Amino acid sequence: MRGMRSMSSSDLSLPSRPHRTLVSPHQRHSISIKLNLNWALHVGRGKEWKALQDSFQRVQKKGAASEACIVSGLSGIGKTHFCRQLKRDMMESKETPRGFFGEGKFDQYQQLSDPFAAVVEAFSDICSQILKDLERREEISKNIQASLGSRTDVRLAMKLIPPLAEIFGNNTISVDGPVLGKSMTIQRQTDREERPQPSGGHDETLVRQQPVSASHTMALFRSLLKGIASSSCYVILFLDDVQWSDMASRELVHAILSDSTIQNVLLLAARRDSERTQQNPSSSNLPTMIPENKKEANYISLHNLSESQVTALLVSLFECHPSHQSNERVQPLSKLILKKTGGNIFYIVQLLEFLQQQHLLFYDTLDNEWTWDLAAITLKANASENVVQFLTQVIENNLPGEVRAALAMASCLGFVFHVKVLTLALQMTEDSASFFAEHATTSTDNCETSMLCQRLQDSLRYASEEGLIESVSKDGSVFKWSHDKLLECCYSNMAERQDIELLHLQIGRAMHQKLLLEEAQDDSFLFLTVAQMNRGSARIDRGSARIDQTSHERIDLVELNLRAGEKARSLSAFQTASEYLAIARRLVIEDDWKNEFVLTLELYTMSAETEFSCGNYDTLKDLLDQIESHGQTIEDKMRAWYLRVAMLGQSSPREGSKEACRVLGLLGQPMPFRPSVFRLGYEFFQVRAMVNNCNEDDLLNLPTMEGKKDRVIMKLLQFVDYFGRMDENESLMTLSHLRQMQHTLKNGMSDGAGATYAVWGIVKGMFGDVDGAYRFGQLATTVADNWEESQGAIPKAYASVYTCINHMKEPLAHSVDPLLMAYRAGLESGEAYHGGCCMSAYMGVYITMGLPIGPLLGDMEKFIGQLQEGGQGQLVRFIRPMNEFARILAGKQSSPLIIDETDLPVYRSTDSIWLIYLQYIQNDIWEARNTLRRVMKTTKEPLFDVIYMSYHLRIVSALICYGIYRLKPKRKYIRMASKFKKWFRTKAQKGDINVPGMLQLVEAEEAATLQHSTTDQTRKIFDQAIQSLRQGSFTAFAAIANERAGDAMARFNDPFWRDNYYRSARLLYKEWGATTKAEEMKAKLGNEESSALTQSHVLTVRGRSRFDAVNIENSLEGTFVSEMQID
């Protein structure tokens, strides 16, 4: 029945597809009449095709933003082939740039199998095209690796998408340096509550952090796109049947479309509509895929053909001359076809094929035209209610029995199926003999098995030649159905004849046996096995324990779903994992808490961890109650307690702190929520005595913390630290620092040991022991760097060391690279919170140093997206004032930085620190004074004394005091400024190499304000401060120093040096990226810019010594004179 070729996917195509042949059986071998389906799929779709072409053209433009185009319609309407035409146009066009078209399809029958499977399929398709592009392959390979940004990410990407290994070959480049914005770029989860992920590393006693976090997995896919896509190499990502997509894939699509750095990418999605949803193209699961900034996605709806369109289609197919006479001749057949097919193009084609096979439609060689027997067709059509029955009859009446049997079984395996799995299903199901009568067997005899495989290969080859299925692998080991409707037809036919649930269970049993024999190690095989058994789970008796075969099988299925859920978690597909675990819980009965306690406890605990990751807190509460109710020991309940602490802390850090203190009491570590000064002093001296009994080698070689209970206690102490900081409960936070150190010294090291040494260093720094603080900071980084079990130790330690300790003895600039490295380690290890802390500190240090704001703005956007993706809303909130500060200075934001008085105190304090800095730079001196008063009341001492932000807070505070004094001369402002000056002097005496320039600036401003010095003496102090600040790489402070010096010279009535300092300030503000300040300096200069000085003028003007001029030139590192000459 060769007419079945019409069901090939290539047949339902748009223009440029080869013509196909429909002939009378009498003329089958003598003539070739082509049935042209090209024009058919264009009937009535010119407007829709133009809309798709417009999207295609837009994404090819240089710098074009990513775009989404959603093609929807009823089943069989031609959505897939409509979209595929874009690929054919790409291949044939000689005018448009060359791009890549990757296609992946979601499977209705395997929605829980292989999370990201369709996306991986699409990327693999793109990789296969890159491999064939010899001209650009090497360049794209380098771009991808550079975009991924590290060897670790390159390896992970190759694991996710194996064809990448072929692209990279032996040319994997060195990509060790962590560069923000080069790879890790995440966005999304506006629908997910903001939450810090609990820090678990790889500790099985706690909330499990997977080797690759959700944000990291999505970042890899997005980095791949950025490495491939460009204006000369656009990418079309075609995802078919998105109505069957899993949650993980939808979130990934959302992340891709949300990333503004991904350009020249068209996300093309085909979605099957029901009659109910067809009128609302933005319904269904699309809202979870399309971000807010892409809500105007291009929605294209395809509809069934009308009677006139069906008539025009038949005229075209039969190659009639389009005329009124032709229309009248075809119209009766057209009406009949429309009645039976509803105008569905797939059904129309199948019906025409059916009529030809029944000899009711044939080519008349005498009249040289197509003809048909309308009366017979009418009679035949009335025998079945619709075209689906026609299609069923075609398969039943025209295919050999073995082919029908193979296809029927294949329909139970999904849209894509493996020959080995199909063989296993046919070989080991109970009624396999009915499929391959004389060849099928349940025996394992190699000869009979070989015969079965050969017969199956022959059947699949026959079906492929008939256009029912297509091979999707070179070796013919994997096939897919040519169309969903063919799969549905075979499956519905199978369901009518078989106990379909029992059949799925039998297939699952066969696959499970293979898993038990460890013959199948592929993760996809596990997912397929679980999917089959779940579809037959209704046939499994809910027995009470492993007392009979069915009860044993129920427990086995619980274990399989638990295993699949754990694997899905490792792929960051938390929603898919949640569904597997929910199925497992539905199989559990109350007696399992007694008879299968270990399995049931693990199931509920992993379910709780997964629901926490998904943000499903209502379900989480019920699960935690179950665990606490049935848990028999403290060890059974520890993970649940930990999760409850994390959950409560989301809405209220104070409640989280209280719960953590309660749980610590249950674990034998009573922790007062409001510890007294006496308690802190007692514990401090206790810890100090323990530390003094250890030398450096002892501290570096403590044993590893082994006890599960001890590790839980350490994690809870870290939670107390975090929530105490959020609640500004400094006494509780300090006690947690002391307890962490005490616990480590008593019980050994955990992955938080480096952070523990760091917080002890912070405590010593708070008490003025700078040398001791620095020593423990170095110990902390050494322990973290050498911690072999997980990279998660690095961000935990580095977040504290390079925020509060390292700058006590080293240049602040030395903190930049370590913080970036720690951020990367946090993403790769799943320590999203501590990694985010490192990046937050990096950005703060970056701005404090006065490094270029321009690149930082892009990095901030990416980083904020990554934090939102990982549920780190608290850190996003910390970064917000830094982001607005930078945007306002760069002229990218006009709205002011506003403090929300309803926010947590810690947020208000952070906002105020950045607001006072901004107000001072903008010369809003009175508002800066008001903000300073609030800061002095809310900023906690002495903890804040050790944080890097204390630099710009205190230097700006001192300058504000002098500025206010000049406007309102009261001695209290001088006294306040003197306190800040004293702080800088004390820091300098203790070895802080960052503060000399800041101290000199404060002294220069004091001299200029009180006018105790001459003009030249004041200028000399400013010059020394500028030189010192520039040598310390404090560009922002150096710019401020030049502006203050210019103002001072203006008060001294010295226009020459006033303008020189303003020019230097303008140069440095431009270098910093503070364009608003650079423009302000330009306005201050006015027309004086044209009076650029020559070198001789600088050396001789007004009798000033060469010493002064050289010092100014040196202080700007050779840029001062050149800037004046340029101006």
TrEMBL record:
Residues 1-16 have a biased composition (Low complexity). Residues 43-267 form the Orc1-like AAA ATPase domain. One of its GO terms (molecular function) is kinase activity. Pfam families: AAA_16. InterPro entries: AAA_16 (IPR041664), Hybrid_Histidine_Kinase (IPR053159), P-loop_NTPase (IPR027417). Keywords: Kinase, Transferase. SUPFAM superfamilies: P-loop containing nucleoside triphosphate hydrolases. Residues 1-25, 187-207 are annotated as: Disordered. PANTHER family: HYBRID SIGNAL TRANSDUCTION HISTIDINE KINASE G (PTHR43642:SF1). This is Histidine kinase. It comes from Seminavis robusta.
